[in-house]
Amino acid sequence: QVQLVESGGGLVQPGGSLRLSCAASGFTFSDYAMRWYRQAPGKEREFVAAIGANDPSTYYADSVKGRFTIARDNDKNMVYLEMNSLKPEDTAVYYCNRNSYWGQGTQVTVSS
């Protein structure tokens, strides 16, 4: 069955960096685009970034463009989200996504 397992979240100061990882299994990873979403307390889940299946196309929410980078390693079945210049408003649970499948999420807290 499809499994997505996120890791790498934590507490970081404003201006800091984190790298999130998502380990995928149960499907042919290289056949699918992958996405990151996030959900802050009391808010709707929102799109963060996406990466194409076999091409390097990437897409970002305006709020993270220029600060976050999505990448994938098809040999390792992994997708990553490199987050730089983090702001308190980036605080959320971050989820890895493939179509209707979601991981359990990893908490990112940006606070001094």
**How many DSSP E strands?**
11
Radius of gyration: 13 Å
Low-confidence stretches: none
Overall helicity: under 10%
Give me the secondary-structure category: mainly beta
H and E order? EEEEEEEEEEE
Mean pLDDT: 96
The end-to-end span amounts to 40 Å
Main β-sheet, in a few words? 7 strands, mixed
Strand content: over 45%
Q: Globular, elongated, flat, extended or rod-shaped: what is the shape?
A: globular
Number of helices: 0
Keywords:
single chain, 112 residues, mainly beta, seven-stranded mixed β-sheet, 0% helix, globular
Strand and helix layout:
Elements: E1 3-7, E2 10-12, E3 18-25, E4 34-39, E5 46-51, E6 58-60, E7 68-73, E8 78-83, E9 92-98, E10 101-102, E11 106-110
Parallel strand pairs: 2-11
Antiparallel strand pairs: 1-3, 3-8, 4-5, 4-9, 5-6, 7-8, 9-10, 9-11
Write up what this structure looks like.
This protein has 112 residues and is an all-beta fold. 0% of the residues lie in helices and 51% in strands. It contains no helices and 11 strands. The chain has strands at 3-7, 10-12, 18-25, 34-39, 46-51, 58-60, 68-73, 78-83, 92-98, 101-102, 106-110. The strands form 2 sheets. Strands 2, 4, 5, 6, 9, 10 and 11 form a 7-stranded mixed sheet that branches. Strands 1-3-8-7 form a 4-stranded antiparallel sheet, with no helix packed on it. Strand 9 (92-98) and strand 10 (101-102) form a beta hairpin. The radius of gyration is 13 Å and the shape is globular. It starts with a strand and ends with a strand. The mean pLDDT is 96.
